[in-house]
Amino acid sequence: MKPLRPVVLAIILAAGFFYFTTHRSDRFAGIDWPSRPQHVEITEAASGSSLDSEEQNNIDVYRKNISSVVNITSRIRSFDFFYGQYETEGQGSGFIIDKEGRILTNYHVIENASKIYVTLHGREKQIPASIVGTDKTHDLAVIQIKVPELRPMTLGDSSNLLVGQKVYAIGNPFGLNGTLTLGIVSSIRGIREPDGMQIEDAIQTDAAINPGNSGGPLLNYHGEVIGINTMIASSVGQSAGIGFAIPINTAKAVLNDLVTLGRVRRPALGVRTIPIDAELASELGLAADYGLLIVQTVPGGAADRAGLRGGSERAYLGNMQISIGGDLIVAIDGKDINSQQGLAQIMNSHRAGDTVKVTIYRGKKRIDVNVELGESREQV
Questions:
Q1: Domain range for residue 196?
Q2: What CA–CA distance (Å, rounded) separates 310 from 298?
Q3: Domain-ending residue, one of 218, 235, 260
C-alpha cells in the first residue's frame, strides 16, 4: 500500500484543482479585475474660483500689514559656575510704528538682552537694533533699526472693543515667520503676568498665540492695531485658545515718554490714603460710605499744589496710627473710586502732566478739584 499513497495523493490534488478552476470559476465571473486605462479622469474645480468676502478681507489684512511685522532675536549673556559665560537666544515679534524704524514690542522680549537683532519679513539678514525706551510696568519696549522706506502700521482704538469682534494675530510663533491666525475678542479683563505685573483691560482672544508671538500686533477687521500680543494661559506651553494682548491705548499713552525720555513718567496724585467702607465711614462720620480718605499729601506734590488736604487728627486703625480729618476722594473724572487699585487703574490711563477732575468730600461738602498729575516719585 505504501507505494500507492503518493499516486492516490496526486490524483486527489489534481481532482481538486480541476474542480475549483472549472466547476467553481463561475463565482468569480462577475468580478472586474483592476485595469490600467490610458488616462485618469478626475473632477477639477473651475479655474479662478472666487473668494468670499471674509476670505478676501483676511488676505487684504495680511498683505497690508505683513511687511511691518518683524522677528526679534535677543541674545542674553549668562554665567554658569562650571562652564563660565555663555549666550542664550530668545525669539519674539514686534511691529514698526514710524518711518524712523521704531518698533513696538514687549519688554519681556528684550529683557536683559546684550544684543538685539531684527529680521524684516521676506529677508534673511539680521539687522542690529538699539533700545529706545522700556516700560516694565506695562510690559512694553520700543527698539529702533536704521533702514530706509519702512512702512509703519496703523494704530487703532482699543477703548470700545466688544466681545465677539473678529481679530487677527500676526507674528512668528516657534520661529515660523509671518504667521496669521484668526479669532475673536473673547473677553476684556484684568490679568496678572507671571512676573506679577497687572494688565488692566487686557484683550482675551482665541486667536492662536504661541511662544514667538509675544510683541506682535493684534488687529481688528480693518487691519488696525488694537493690541500687543503678550501671553497665553496654557498648561502645555502652547496655544490652548486663551491668549492675551495689551490694549493699544495703554501703549499709546506712554509712547511719547518712551521715545523722548526712554522711560515713562508714571503719574501720581502724591497722596497716602486708606480705603473707606460703610462701617469705617460710620465710625468716622464721613459723608460717603466709599472712597479713599487722604491721610497725608506730599509737600509740593500734585494734590498739595491743588489744595487737597490730608488728615490733621491722630487716630488708630487697629494697631496702625493714622491721621483723619482729610479730604475723602470719591471719584476721578466722574468715575467712582472704591479702592486703591481703582485709583491705580485710573493713573495707568494717564501720564504725568495730565489734568484730572478729582471729586472729594470736605466734611459734608462735595467739591470738584482740578489736579495736574505729578510723577510717581512724588507718591508717599
A1: 166-260
A2: 9
A3: 260
DSSP one-letter string for 69-109: EEEEEEEEEEEETTTEEEEEEEEEEEEE-STT-EEEE-HHH
Rounded Cα gap, residues 380 and 366, in angstroms: 25
Report CA 273 to chain centroid distance, whole Å.
32
Q: Give residue-wise pLDDT tens across range 99-158.
A: 999 999 999 999 999 999 999 998 989 999 999 999 998 899 999 999 999 999 999 999
**pTM of the predicted protein model:** 0.72
Catalytic residue set: 108, 139, 214
- Looking up residue 78, the CATH number of its domain turns out to be 2.40.10.10
Report the domain count for the chain.
Answer: 3
* Residue 109 amino acid letter: V
Residue showing cell 519674539: 92
> Are 287 and 364 members of one domain?
yes
Which tens digits make up the pLDDT trace of 201-254?
899 999 999 999 999 999 999 999 999 999 888 666 677 789 999 999 999 988
The H helix count followed by the E strand count for the chain is: 7, 22
- 310 inside domain: yes
